[in-house]
Design goal:
The complex is a heterodimer of chains A (195) and B (374). By secondary structure, chain A is mostly helical. Helices cover 70% and strands 0% of the residues of chain A. The longest helix of chain A is centred in the middle third of the chain and has 26 residues, at 78-103. The model of chain A has no long low-confidence stretch (mean pLDDT 82). The chains are: A mainly alpha (195), B mainly alpha (374).
Chain lengths: 195, 374
Protein backbone atom coordinates (compact mmCIF):
# COMPACT_ATOMS: atom_id res chain seq x y z
CA UNK A 1 0.00 0.00 0.00
CA UNK A 2 2.76 2.39 0.91
CA UNK A 3 4.36 1.78 -2.46
CA UNK A 4 1.20 2.75 -4.26
CA UNK A 5 0.34 5.74 -2.09
CA UNK A 6 2.29 8.97 -2.49
CA UNK A 7 3.79 10.43 0.64
CA UNK A 8 3.14 14.10 -0.04
CA UNK A 9 4.59 15.15 3.31
CA UNK A 10 8.01 14.40 1.98
CA UNK A 11 7.47 16.42 -1.13
CA UNK A 12 8.97 19.85 -1.36
CA UNK A 13 6.77 22.75 -2.29
CA UNK A 14 8.17 22.78 -5.78
CA UNK A 15 7.50 19.06 -6.23
CA UNK A 16 3.93 19.51 -5.10
CA UNK A 17 3.43 22.34 -7.54
CA UNK A 18 4.88 20.25 -10.33
CA UNK A 19 2.43 17.48 -9.49
CA UNK A 20 -0.46 19.93 -9.33
CA UNK A 21 0.49 21.37 -12.71
CA UNK A 22 0.27 17.84 -14.10
CA UNK A 23 -3.27 17.55 -12.70
CA UNK A 24 -2.78 16.14 -9.23
CA UNK A 25 -5.32 17.90 -7.05
CA UNK A 26 -4.14 16.20 -3.89
CA UNK A 27 -0.80 17.89 -4.28
CA UNK A 28 -2.55 21.24 -4.14
CA UNK A 29 -4.39 20.21 -0.99
CA UNK A 30 -1.04 19.64 0.66
CA UNK A 31 0.25 22.98 -0.51
CA UNK A 32 -2.87 24.62 0.88
CA UNK A 33 -2.44 22.89 4.21
CA UNK A 34 1.12 24.12 4.49
CA UNK A 35 0.49 27.75 3.74
CA UNK A 36 -3.10 28.47 4.68
CA UNK A 37 -2.26 29.77 8.14
CA UNK A 38 0.77 31.64 6.95
CA UNK A 39 -1.14 33.46 4.28
CA UNK A 40 -4.15 34.33 6.39
CA UNK A 41 -1.94 35.73 9.16
CA UNK A 42 0.20 37.54 6.66
CA UNK A 43 -2.83 39.30 5.17
CA UNK A 44 -4.25 39.81 8.64
CA UNK A 45 -1.18 41.75 9.71
CA UNK A 46 -0.72 43.56 6.49
CA UNK A 47 -4.37 44.56 6.02
CA UNK A 48 -5.13 46.37 9.22
CA UNK A 49 -5.97 43.25 11.24
CA UNK A 50 -9.17 42.74 9.23
CA UNK A 51 -9.98 39.07 9.47
CA UNK A 52 -12.62 38.97 6.73
CA UNK A 53 -10.44 40.86 4.34
CA UNK A 54 -7.52 38.61 5.19
CA UNK A 55 -9.55 35.49 4.37
CA UNK A 56 -10.85 37.00 1.15
CA UNK A 57 -7.35 37.79 0.02
CA UNK A 58 -6.13 34.34 0.99
CA UNK A 59 -9.01 32.84 -1.00
CA UNK A 60 -8.12 34.94 -4.05
CA UNK A 61 -4.50 33.96 -3.76
CA UNK A 62 -5.17 30.22 -3.74
CA UNK A 63 -7.78 30.42 -6.51
CA UNK A 64 -5.21 32.19 -8.65
CA UNK A 65 -2.87 29.30 -8.09
CA UNK A 66 -5.65 26.85 -9.00
CA UNK A 67 -6.62 28.71 -12.16
CA UNK A 68 -3.12 29.39 -13.40
CA UNK A 69 -0.64 26.92 -11.90
CA UNK A 70 1.59 27.41 -14.91
CA UNK A 71 2.32 30.96 -13.74
CA UNK A 72 4.68 29.52 -11.16
CA UNK A 73 8.24 29.13 -12.37
CA UNK A 74 9.39 25.69 -11.21
CA UNK A 75 12.97 26.89 -10.97
CA UNK A 76 12.08 29.35 -8.24
CA UNK A 77 11.39 28.91 -4.53
CA UNK A 78 7.67 28.42 -4.04
CA UNK A 79 7.57 30.01 -0.60
CA UNK A 80 9.20 33.24 -1.71
CA UNK A 81 7.07 33.27 -4.89
CA UNK A 82 3.89 32.86 -2.82
CA UNK A 83 4.87 35.64 -0.42
CA UNK A 84 5.84 37.93 -3.25
CA UNK A 85 2.41 37.41 -4.87
CA UNK A 86 0.70 38.07 -1.56
CA UNK A 87 2.83 41.11 -0.92
CA UNK A 88 1.91 42.53 -4.34
CA UNK A 89 -1.74 41.98 -3.60
CA UNK A 90 -1.36 43.97 -0.43
CA UNK A 91 0.38 46.77 -2.30
CA UNK A 92 -2.48 46.91 -4.78
CA UNK A 93 -4.90 47.15 -1.91
CA UNK A 94 -2.89 50.00 -0.43
CA UNK A 95 -3.15 51.85 -3.75
CA UNK A 96 -6.91 51.33 -3.89
CA UNK A 97 -7.26 52.62 -0.38
CA UNK A 98 -5.16 55.67 -1.22
CA UNK A 99 -7.42 56.44 -4.20
CA UNK A 100 -10.54 56.08 -2.11
CA UNK A 101 -9.01 58.29 0.54
CA UNK A 102 -8.27 61.07 -1.93
CA UNK A 103 -11.58 60.92 -3.77
CA UNK A 104 -13.93 60.88 -1.01
CA UNK A 105 -15.17 61.30 2.39
CA UNK A 106 -11.91 61.17 4.24
CA UNK A 107 -11.04 63.62 6.96
CA UNK A 108 -9.39 66.84 5.74
CA UNK A 109 -5.76 67.51 6.45
CA UNK A 110 -4.97 68.86 9.90
CA UNK A 111 -7.89 67.10 11.48
CA UNK A 112 -7.19 63.91 13.41
CA UNK A 113 -9.47 61.02 12.52
CA UNK A 114 -9.10 59.41 15.90
CA UNK A 115 -9.11 60.80 19.35
CA UNK A 116 -5.65 60.69 20.85
CA UNK A 117 -6.90 61.02 24.38
CA UNK A 118 -5.67 58.00 26.35
CA UNK A 119 -8.42 56.42 28.32
CA UNK A 120 -7.66 54.70 31.68
CA UNK A 121 -8.25 51.21 30.36
CA UNK A 122 -6.02 51.95 27.41
CA UNK A 123 -3.32 53.11 29.77
CA UNK A 124 -3.36 49.73 31.34
CA UNK A 125 -3.15 48.11 27.91
CA UNK A 126 -0.18 50.23 27.01
CA UNK A 127 1.72 48.15 29.41
CA UNK A 128 1.07 45.29 27.14
CA UNK A 129 4.16 44.58 25.11
CA UNK A 130 2.42 43.45 21.97
CA UNK A 131 0.33 46.59 21.76
CA UNK A 132 3.39 48.72 22.14
CA UNK A 133 5.20 46.62 19.60
CA UNK A 134 2.47 47.33 17.05
CA UNK A 135 2.62 51.00 17.79
CA UNK A 136 6.34 51.14 17.40
CA UNK A 137 6.21 49.02 14.26
CA UNK A 138 3.80 51.45 12.67
CA UNK A 139 6.17 54.25 13.46
CA UNK A 140 8.89 52.53 11.50
CA UNK A 141 9.59 53.13 7.87
CA UNK A 142 7.71 50.82 5.47
CA UNK A 143 10.90 49.29 4.16
CA UNK A 144 12.17 48.46 7.64
CA UNK A 145 8.83 47.29 8.87
CA UNK A 146 8.20 44.77 6.12
CA UNK A 147 11.64 43.29 6.50
CA UNK A 148 11.16 42.93 10.25
CA UNK A 149 7.73 41.35 9.82
CA UNK A 150 8.94 38.88 7.21
CA UNK A 151 11.86 37.96 9.39
CA UNK A 152 10.18 37.60 12.76
CA UNK A 153 6.50 36.99 11.89
CA UNK A 154 6.83 34.79 8.83
CA UNK A 155 10.17 33.25 9.75
CA UNK A 156 11.85 33.87 6.38
CA UNK A 157 15.61 33.86 6.09
CA UNK A 158 17.59 36.80 4.76
CA UNK A 159 17.88 35.24 1.33
CA UNK A 160 14.17 34.45 1.23
CA UNK A 161 13.33 37.97 2.24
CA UNK A 162 15.67 39.28 -0.44
CA UNK A 163 14.03 37.03 -3.04
CA UNK A 164 10.54 37.92 -1.94
CA UNK A 165 11.14 41.64 -1.97
CA UNK A 166 13.44 41.35 -4.98
CA UNK A 167 16.19 43.31 -3.28
CA UNK A 168 19.76 42.62 -2.30
CA UNK A 169 20.44 40.40 0.74
CA UNK A 170 22.83 43.01 2.19
CA UNK A 171 20.09 45.59 2.02
CA UNK A 172 17.80 43.22 3.87
CA UNK A 173 20.44 42.72 6.54
CA UNK A 174 21.03 46.42 7.16
CA UNK A 175 17.31 47.16 7.22
CA UNK A 176 16.66 44.32 9.64
CA UNK A 177 19.44 45.50 11.97
CA UNK A 178 18.09 49.00 11.96
CA UNK A 179 14.53 47.89 12.71
CA UNK A 180 15.55 45.43 15.44
CA UNK A 181 17.81 47.87 17.28
CA UNK A 182 15.25 50.66 17.09
CA UNK A 183 12.43 48.52 18.46
CA UNK A 184 14.62 46.95 21.08
CA UNK A 185 15.70 50.33 22.40
CA UNK A 186 12.12 51.59 22.63
CA UNK A 187 10.66 48.44 24.14
CA UNK A 188 13.39 47.83 26.69
CA UNK A 189 11.41 50.01 29.09
CA UNK A 190 8.84 47.24 29.41
CA UNK A 191 11.55 44.85 30.51
CA UNK A 192 12.54 47.17 33.36
CA UNK A 193 8.92 47.66 34.44
CA UNK A 194 8.15 43.97 34.21
CA UNK A 195 11.13 43.22 36.33
CA UNK B 1 23.90 35.27 9.48
CA UNK B 2 21.43 37.32 11.39
CA UNK B 3 19.36 34.26 11.89
CA UNK B 4 22.26 32.67 13.51
CA UNK B 5 22.87 35.76 15.60
CA UNK B 6 19.28 35.76 16.81
CA UNK B 7 19.43 32.06 17.46
CA UNK B 8 22.66 32.54 19.35
CA UNK B 9 21.16 35.32 21.42
CA UNK B 10 18.02 33.31 22.15
CA UNK B 11 19.71 30.03 22.93
CA UNK B 12 22.90 31.06 24.66
CA UNK B 13 24.07 33.36 27.38
CA UNK B 14 26.54 36.12 26.76
CA UNK B 15 29.33 34.46 28.64
CA UNK B 16 28.82 31.22 26.69
CA UNK B 17 29.61 32.85 23.36
CA UNK B 18 32.68 31.83 21.45
CA UNK B 19 34.85 34.29 19.57
CA UNK B 20 33.06 33.61 16.30
CA UNK B 21 29.66 33.84 17.90
CA UNK B 22 30.66 37.01 19.66
CA UNK B 23 31.79 38.46 16.37
CA UNK B 24 28.46 37.46 14.88
CA UNK B 25 26.29 39.02 17.58
CA UNK B 26 28.49 42.11 17.84
CA UNK B 27 26.55 43.66 14.94
CA UNK B 28 23.43 43.72 17.15
CA UNK B 29 24.76 44.05 20.67
CA UNK B 30 27.89 45.70 21.99
CA UNK B 31 28.02 44.34 25.52
CA UNK B 32 26.41 41.89 27.90
CA UNK B 33 23.64 44.31 29.00
CA UNK B 34 22.52 44.97 25.45
CA UNK B 35 22.77 41.26 24.86
CA UNK B 36 20.26 40.64 27.64
CA UNK B 37 17.95 43.37 26.46
CA UNK B 38 18.03 41.98 22.95
CA UNK B 39 17.39 38.52 24.26
CA UNK B 40 14.36 39.71 26.19
CA UNK B 41 13.09 41.70 23.21
CA UNK B 42 13.34 38.78 20.79
CA UNK B 43 11.68 36.40 23.23
CA UNK B 44 8.88 38.84 23.92
CA UNK B 45 8.37 39.40 20.19
CA UNK B 46 8.08 35.68 19.59
CA UNK B 47 5.49 35.40 22.32
CA UNK B 48 3.55 38.36 21.03
CA UNK B 49 3.42 36.92 17.53
CA UNK B 50 2.22 33.59 18.76
CA UNK B 51 -0.56 35.23 20.71
CA UNK B 52 -1.50 37.39 17.70
CA UNK B 53 -1.89 34.52 15.27
CA UNK B 54 -5.36 33.72 13.97
CA UNK B 55 -6.80 30.53 12.59
CA UNK B 56 -8.40 30.44 9.17
CA UNK B 57 -12.09 29.64 9.12
CA UNK B 58 -13.21 26.28 7.70
CA UNK B 59 -15.33 28.10 5.11
CA UNK B 60 -12.18 29.36 3.47
CA UNK B 61 -10.94 25.85 2.92
CA UNK B 62 -14.34 24.73 1.60
CA UNK B 63 -14.44 27.58 -0.88
CA UNK B 64 -10.95 26.92 -2.10
CA UNK B 65 -11.55 23.20 -2.41
CA UNK B 66 -14.87 23.80 -4.19
CA UNK B 67 -13.06 26.01 -6.64
CA UNK B 68 -10.43 23.34 -7.04
CA UNK B 69 -13.01 20.64 -7.82
CA UNK B 70 -14.94 22.79 -10.32
CA UNK B 71 -14.70 21.81 -13.98
CA UNK B 72 -11.99 23.65 -15.81
CA UNK B 73 -14.51 25.27 -18.23
CA UNK B 74 -16.35 26.95 -15.37
CA UNK B 75 -13.09 28.10 -13.86
CA UNK B 76 -12.13 29.86 -17.07
CA UNK B 77 -14.07 32.98 -16.22
CA UNK B 78 -12.52 35.08 -13.60
CA UNK B 79 -14.68 37.04 -11.21
CA UNK B 80 -13.84 40.22 -13.07
CA UNK B 81 -14.49 38.64 -16.50
CA UNK B 82 -16.78 40.00 -19.16
CA UNK B 83 -19.52 37.39 -19.01
CA UNK B 84 -19.85 37.40 -15.23
CA UNK B 85 -20.11 41.16 -15.49
CA UNK B 86 -22.71 41.11 -18.25
CA UNK B 87 -24.71 38.21 -16.86
CA UNK B 88 -24.38 38.14 -13.09
CA UNK B 89 -26.18 35.23 -11.53
CA UNK B 90 -27.43 37.00 -8.45
CA UNK B 91 -29.53 39.61 -10.27
CA UNK B 92 -32.88 39.56 -12.03
CA UNK B 93 -32.97 39.53 -15.80
CA UNK B 94 -33.87 43.23 -16.11
CA UNK B 95 -31.01 44.15 -13.81
CA UNK B 96 -28.40 42.37 -15.88
CA UNK B 97 -26.17 44.73 -17.86
CA UNK B 98 -26.43 42.58 -21.00
CA UNK B 99 -30.23 42.94 -21.05
CA UNK B 100 -30.07 46.67 -20.37
CA UNK B 101 -27.47 47.27 -23.05
CA UNK B 102 -29.44 45.28 -25.64
CA UNK B 103 -32.61 47.26 -24.88
CA UNK B 104 -30.71 50.51 -25.22
CA UNK B 105 -29.24 49.39 -28.55
CA UNK B 106 -32.68 48.44 -29.89
CA UNK B 107 -34.12 51.80 -28.88
CA UNK B 108 -31.29 53.75 -30.50
CA UNK B 109 -31.45 51.77 -33.74
CA UNK B 110 -35.24 52.10 -33.89
CA UNK B 111 -35.05 55.85 -33.31
CA UNK B 112 -32.52 56.24 -36.11
CA UNK B 113 -34.59 54.15 -38.53
CA UNK B 114 -37.79 56.07 -37.79
CA UNK B 115 -36.06 59.38 -38.30
CA UNK B 116 -34.61 58.26 -41.63
CA UNK B 117 -38.06 57.32 -42.99
CA UNK B 118 -39.80 60.63 -42.20
CA UNK B 119 -39.35 62.90 -45.22
CA UNK B 120 -40.62 66.42 -45.54
CA UNK B 121 -42.75 67.37 -48.51
CA UNK B 122 -40.32 70.04 -49.62
CA UNK B 123 -37.57 67.48 -49.85
CA UNK B 124 -39.73 65.24 -52.01
CA UNK B 125 -40.42 68.13 -54.36
CA UNK B 126 -36.70 68.78 -54.69
CA UNK B 127 -36.12 65.18 -55.61
CA UNK B 128 -38.79 65.36 -58.31
CA UNK B 129 -37.13 68.41 -59.80
CA UNK B 130 -33.84 66.65 -59.90
CA UNK B 131 -35.36 63.65 -61.63
CA UNK B 132 -36.99 65.80 -64.30
CA UNK B 133 -33.81 67.70 -64.85
CA UNK B 134 -31.89 64.48 -65.28
CA UNK B 135 -34.44 63.17 -67.75
CA UNK B 136 -34.85 66.33 -69.79
CA UNK B 137 -31.42 67.87 -69.59
CA UNK B 138 -29.49 64.66 -69.41
CA UNK B 139 -26.18 66.44 -69.02
CA UNK B 140 -26.60 68.13 -65.68
CA UNK B 141 -26.14 65.78 -62.81
CA UNK B 142 -25.90 68.03 -59.79
CA UNK B 143 -28.58 69.03 -57.38
CA UNK B 144 -31.10 71.51 -58.58
CA UNK B 145 -32.02 74.62 -56.75
CA UNK B 146 -35.77 75.27 -56.57
CA UNK B 147 -35.66 78.35 -58.84
CA UNK B 148 -33.98 76.40 -61.61
CA UNK B 149 -36.50 73.63 -61.17
CA UNK B 150 -39.31 76.11 -61.66
CA UNK B 151 -37.70 77.51 -64.78
CA UNK B 152 -37.19 74.09 -66.27
CA UNK B 153 -40.70 73.00 -65.48
CA UNK B 154 -42.15 76.23 -66.88
CA UNK B 155 -40.28 75.77 -70.14
CA UNK B 156 -41.58 72.25 -70.25
CA UNK B 157 -45.11 73.56 -70.03
CA UNK B 158 -44.75 76.34 -72.58
CA UNK B 159 -42.94 74.28 -75.15
CA UNK B 160 -45.29 72.37 -77.36
CA UNK B 161 -44.36 68.80 -78.11
CA UNK B 162 -44.02 68.32 -81.83
CA UNK B 163 -45.64 64.95 -81.71
CA UNK B 164 -46.69 62.41 -79.17
CA UNK B 165 -44.22 59.95 -80.57
CA UNK B 166 -41.31 62.17 -79.68
CA UNK B 167 -41.94 61.61 -76.02
CA UNK B 168 -41.93 58.26 -74.35
CA UNK B 169 -44.71 57.09 -72.11
CA UNK B 170 -42.77 57.65 -68.92
CA UNK B 171 -41.61 61.06 -70.04
CA UNK B 172 -45.12 62.02 -70.92
CA UNK B 173 -46.28 61.01 -67.50
CA UNK B 174 -43.56 63.10 -65.87
CA UNK B 175 -44.33 66.03 -68.10
CA UNK B 176 -47.97 65.92 -67.15
CA UNK B 177 -47.07 65.97 -63.53
CA UNK B 178 -44.90 68.98 -64.07
CA UNK B 179 -47.54 70.74 -66.15
CA UNK B 180 -50.09 70.38 -63.43
CA UNK B 181 -47.68 71.68 -60.85
CA UNK B 182 -46.68 74.68 -62.90
CA UNK B 183 -50.24 75.56 -63.86
CA UNK B 184 -51.07 75.55 -60.23
CA UNK B 185 -48.24 77.98 -59.57
CA UNK B 186 -49.39 80.22 -62.40
CA UNK B 187 -52.85 80.39 -60.92
CA UNK B 188 -51.36 81.53 -57.68
CA UNK B 189 -49.32 84.24 -59.32
CA UNK B 190 -52.06 85.46 -61.70
CA UNK B 191 -54.03 88.62 -61.21
CA UNK B 192 -57.57 87.35 -61.25
CA UNK B 193 -59.03 90.81 -60.82
CA UNK B 194 -58.78 91.45 -64.55
CA UNK B 195 -61.46 88.89 -65.28
CA UNK B 196 -64.92 90.27 -65.03
CA UNK B 197 -67.94 88.65 -63.58
CA UNK B 198 -69.27 87.84 -66.99
CA UNK B 199 -66.30 85.62 -67.68
CA UNK B 200 -64.53 87.99 -70.08
CA UNK B 201 -61.09 89.39 -69.58
CA UNK B 202 -61.36 93.09 -69.14
CA UNK B 203 -57.78 94.12 -68.44
CA UNK B 204 -55.31 95.59 -70.89
CA UNK B 205 -53.16 93.29 -72.98
CA UNK B 206 -49.43 93.54 -72.50
CA UNK B 207 -46.84 93.56 -75.25
CA UNK B 208 -45.85 90.03 -74.37
CA UNK B 209 -49.40 88.88 -74.84
CA UNK B 210 -49.58 90.52 -78.23
CA UNK B 211 -46.33 88.87 -79.25
CA UNK B 212 -47.62 85.53 -78.08
CA UNK B 213 -50.74 86.09 -80.15
CA UNK B 214 -48.62 86.82 -83.20
CA UNK B 215 -46.51 83.76 -82.60
CA UNK B 216 -49.48 81.55 -82.05
CA UNK B 217 -50.84 82.30 -85.49
CA UNK B 218 -48.54 79.76 -87.07
CA UNK B 219 -49.30 76.97 -84.69
CA UNK B 220 -51.60 74.06 -85.20
CA UNK B 221 -55.18 74.86 -84.35
CA UNK B 222 -55.95 71.48 -82.91
CA UNK B 223 -53.10 71.50 -80.47
CA UNK B 224 -53.70 75.05 -79.53
CA UNK B 225 -57.38 74.53 -79.00
CA UNK B 226 -56.63 71.55 -76.83
CA UNK B 227 -54.20 73.54 -74.76
CA UNK B 228 -56.61 76.39 -74.70
CA UNK B 229 -59.31 74.19 -73.33
CA UNK B 230 -56.92 72.80 -70.73
CA UNK B 231 -55.82 76.22 -69.70
CA UNK B 232 -59.33 77.55 -69.90
CA UNK B 233 -60.35 75.21 -67.17
CA UNK B 234 -57.80 76.70 -64.87
CA UNK B 235 -57.07 80.32 -65.46
CA UNK B 236 -58.18 83.38 -67.29
CA UNK B 237 -54.71 84.48 -68.30
CA UNK B 238 -54.09 81.35 -70.18
CA UNK B 239 -57.34 81.88 -72.06
CA UNK B 240 -56.26 85.41 -72.71
CA UNK B 241 -53.25 84.09 -74.54
CA UNK B 242 -54.93 81.11 -76.07
CA UNK B 243 -58.31 82.59 -77.08
CA UNK B 244 -57.03 84.37 -80.17
CA UNK B 245 -55.66 81.08 -81.35
CA UNK B 246 -59.15 79.64 -81.37
CA UNK B 247 -60.28 82.34 -83.80
CA UNK B 248 -59.65 81.97 -87.49
CA UNK B 249 -56.24 83.44 -87.91
CA UNK B 250 -56.91 84.32 -91.53
CA UNK B 251 -59.56 86.73 -90.48
CA UNK B 252 -57.69 89.71 -89.19
CA UNK B 253 -60.82 91.62 -88.49
CA UNK B 254 -61.78 89.22 -85.81
CA UNK B 255 -58.41 89.46 -84.20
CA UNK B 256 -58.41 93.18 -84.27
CA UNK B 257 -61.88 93.20 -82.89
CA UNK B 258 -60.74 91.03 -80.05
CA UNK B 259 -57.74 93.19 -79.41
CA UNK B 260 -59.65 96.38 -79.53
CA UNK B 261 -62.69 95.41 -77.60
CA UNK B 262 -60.80 92.87 -75.53
CA UNK B 263 -63.72 90.62 -75.90
CA UNK B 264 -61.92 87.52 -74.71
CA UNK B 265 -64.10 84.62 -73.73
CA UNK B 266 -63.94 83.91 -70.05
CA UNK B 267 -63.87 80.85 -68.00
CA UNK B 268 -67.60 80.34 -67.67
CA UNK B 269 -68.58 81.24 -71.19
CA UNK B 270 -66.12 79.15 -73.08
CA UNK B 271 -68.55 76.99 -75.05
CA UNK B 272 -70.89 79.84 -75.74
CA UNK B 273 -68.05 81.99 -76.94
CA UNK B 274 -66.88 79.28 -79.20
CA UNK B 275 -70.32 79.00 -80.76
CA UNK B 276 -70.39 82.79 -81.14
CA UNK B 277 -67.06 82.67 -82.83
CA UNK B 278 -68.28 79.95 -85.16
CA UNK B 279 -71.35 81.99 -85.95
CA UNK B 280 -69.19 84.99 -86.67
CA UNK B 281 -66.99 82.88 -88.79
CA UNK B 282 -69.97 81.69 -90.78
CA UNK B 283 -71.22 85.20 -91.21
CA UNK B 284 -67.83 86.39 -92.29
CA UNK B 285 -67.51 83.56 -94.73
CA UNK B 286 -70.92 84.39 -96.12
CA UNK B 287 -69.96 88.01 -96.39
CA UNK B 288 -66.77 87.13 -98.20
CA UNK B 289 -68.71 84.86 -100.49
CA UNK B 290 -71.15 87.63 -101.21
CA UNK B 291 -68.33 89.94 -102.05
CA UNK B 292 -66.81 87.41 -104.34
CA UNK B 293 -70.20 86.87 -105.96
CA UNK B 294 -70.65 90.58 -106.25
CA UNK B 295 -67.32 90.85 -107.91
CA UNK B 296 -68.22 88.01 -110.19
CA UNK B 297 -71.50 89.64 -111.04
CA UNK B 298 -69.81 92.86 -111.68
CA UNK B 299 -67.37 91.15 -113.94
CA UNK B 300 -70.11 89.27 -115.70
CA UNK B 301 -72.15 92.39 -115.98
CA UNK B 302 -69.27 94.32 -117.34
CA UNK B 303 -68.38 91.57 -119.77
CA UNK B 304 -71.93 91.38 -121.01
CA UNK B 305 -72.19 95.06 -121.27
CA UNK B 306 -68.93 95.10 -123.14
CA UNK B 307 -70.41 92.77 -125.62
CA UNK B 308 -73.80 94.31 -125.80
CA UNK B 309 -73.43 97.83 -124.74
CA UNK B 310 -69.89 98.96 -124.63
CA UNK B 311 -70.59 102.62 -123.96
CA UNK B 312 -72.26 101.59 -120.75
CA UNK B 313 -69.19 99.78 -119.79
CA UNK B 314 -67.01 102.65 -120.57
CA UNK B 315 -69.29 104.95 -118.74
CA UNK B 316 -69.28 102.64 -115.83
CA UNK B 317 -65.54 102.33 -115.87
CA UNK B 318 -64.82 105.90 -116.50
CA UNK B 319 -67.33 107.36 -114.12
CA UNK B 320 -67.29 104.65 -111.64
CA UNK B 321 -71.02 104.83 -111.26
CA UNK B 322 -73.83 102.52 -112.03
CA UNK B 323 -76.31 103.50 -114.64
CA UNK B 324 -79.76 103.41 -113.22
CA UNK B 325 -81.45 103.71 -116.57
CA UNK B 326 -79.75 100.74 -117.90
CA UNK B 327 -81.91 97.84 -118.94
CA UNK B 328 -81.73 95.35 -116.09
CA UNK B 329 -84.13 92.92 -117.67
CA UNK B 330 -81.74 92.50 -120.52
CA UNK B 331 -79.04 91.70 -118.08
CA UNK B 332 -81.26 89.20 -116.30
CA UNK B 333 -82.01 87.43 -119.42
CA UNK B 334 -78.39 87.12 -120.32
CA UNK B 335 -77.15 85.89 -116.97
CA UNK B 336 -79.05 83.87 -114.41
CA UNK B 337 -76.37 84.30 -111.82
CA UNK B 338 -76.85 87.97 -111.71
CA UNK B 339 -80.47 87.47 -110.76
CA UNK B 340 -79.50 85.33 -107.86
CA UNK B 341 -76.80 87.58 -106.63
CA UNK B 342 -78.62 90.86 -106.74
CA UNK B 343 -80.36 91.44 -103.47
CA UNK B 344 -82.43 94.18 -102.05
CA UNK B 345 -79.84 95.77 -99.83
CA UNK B 346 -77.34 95.88 -102.59
CA UNK B 347 -79.91 97.29 -104.94
CA UNK B 348 -80.49 99.97 -102.42
CA UNK B 349 -76.80 100.55 -102.31
CA UNK B 350 -76.78 100.83 -106.05
CA UNK B 351 -79.68 103.16 -105.95
CA UNK B 352 -77.99 105.27 -103.46
CA UNK B 353 -75.02 105.86 -105.69
CA UNK B 354 -77.07 106.04 -108.90
CA UNK B 355 -78.17 109.63 -109.62
CA UNK B 356 -75.41 111.62 -111.27
CA UNK B 357 -74.73 113.81 -114.10
CA UNK B 358 -74.00 110.81 -116.21
CA UNK B 359 -76.37 111.70 -118.95
CA UNK B 360 -73.97 114.42 -120.06
CA UNK B 361 -71.10 112.06 -120.38
CA UNK B 362 -73.34 109.43 -121.81
CA UNK B 363 -74.41 111.51 -124.65
CA UNK B 364 -70.91 112.61 -125.39
CA UNK B 365 -69.53 109.14 -125.32
CA UNK B 366 -72.43 107.71 -127.26
CA UNK B 367 -71.81 110.23 -129.93
CA UNK B 368 -68.20 109.24 -129.97
CA UNK B 369 -69.17 105.61 -130.26
CA UNK B 370 -71.58 106.24 -133.04
CA UNK B 371 -69.03 108.23 -134.90
CA UNK B 372 -66.52 105.47 -134.48
CA UNK B 373 -69.09 102.91 -135.51
CA UNK B 374 -70.01 104.81 -138.58
Amino acid sequence: MRLLKKDYSKYTDEDLMRSFTEGDKVAFEHIYARYESFMVNFFYRKLWSDRIKAEDFAHDLFTKIIDKPESFDLSRNFKTWLFSVANNMCKNEYKKQEVRKNTGYDVPEGVEATDNTIMPDKAVDQNNFSEQLKIELNKLNEKHREVFELRHFEGLSLNEIAETLEINAGTVKSRLHHATKTLAEKLTVFRKTMI
Amino acid sequence: MIKEAENIILTKQYYELSADELATVSELVANAEEFEDMKWFLASTQQALVSEKIEASPDLKKKVMAHLNQPAEKRRFWLNGVIPFLLPEDKKFYQKPAFQMSIAAVLIIGFIMINNNSFKDSTVALNDGKMIEDKVGGEKSGEMIPEEAEEVSSTLVLEEPESAEDLGGAELANTRVVEDAVVYEIVEEEEIDEIGHDGYYSGPLSDDDLKKIEQSKDKDLNNLSTNGNNFGNNTGKVEKTVAPAIVDMDDETVVTTNNNTQNVPGQSGGAKDQSDFKGKKKADKKEGKDRRLKKTNTDAYSSNSEVANKPDVEQNIAGGYYDKNRDDSKLKSESDDADVILEDDKEKEYKEIRPFSAHVNETKELKKLFTVYK
